C-alpha cells in the first residue's frame, strides 16, 4: 500500500491501495512490461497520478475527495496489444453527468499533465461539446481559460448530482453558448461574436475612418 501525498506537501490521511496485475506475463508484451516497467514503478506512477488529479481538482483534504480506497492496474492482451485500465476518481454527478463530459474531464487531466497524444483533434474541432475524450478536453480547457479553476469547481458541483446550469453559474453562459463561442474563436469568427462584424469589415471601417487606401 502506498499513501499518497496531497499537493500541499502534507501527508494525506486517506490511504489508497494500488494493485498491479500482469495477466500476460508469458507474452512478449507482458515480459516487456515486467523487464522495463515493473510493478513497483507502476504503483509509484499511479500514486503520483493520484496526487496530480487531486491537485488539478483542488482537493486538498479527504472531505473533498471521492472515496476510492483501491486503484487497480491490469495488464492484459487484446490481439497482442497490451493495455491498462484503472479507476476514475473524479465525481460523476451520482451517475447523472453526461458520459462525454466524464470522459472529457479525464482527458482534460491528461492534457494538463502534458500527456495529450499526437493523434488528438485540434482545439475547435468536434461536433458537440459533450462528444467526449479529446474534443471535450479541449473545450474544457477553453472554459478553464475563461475562469481559472473552472474544472475543479465543476467537479465539486458534480459530487451529488448534475445540472446543465452549472456552466451558467460558473461562467454566466449556457454550455451551448460557450460551445458556439469556442467554435467561433477557432474558426476565425470571434470578431463577429464580439463586435458583430468580420475582421475584413472592421479593417474596411478602419480605412474609411482614416481615409486610407493601404
Automatic annotation (TrEMBL):
InterPro entries: Uncharacterised_BSP. It comes from the Eukaryota. This is Uncharacterized protein. It comes from Rhododendron griersonianum.
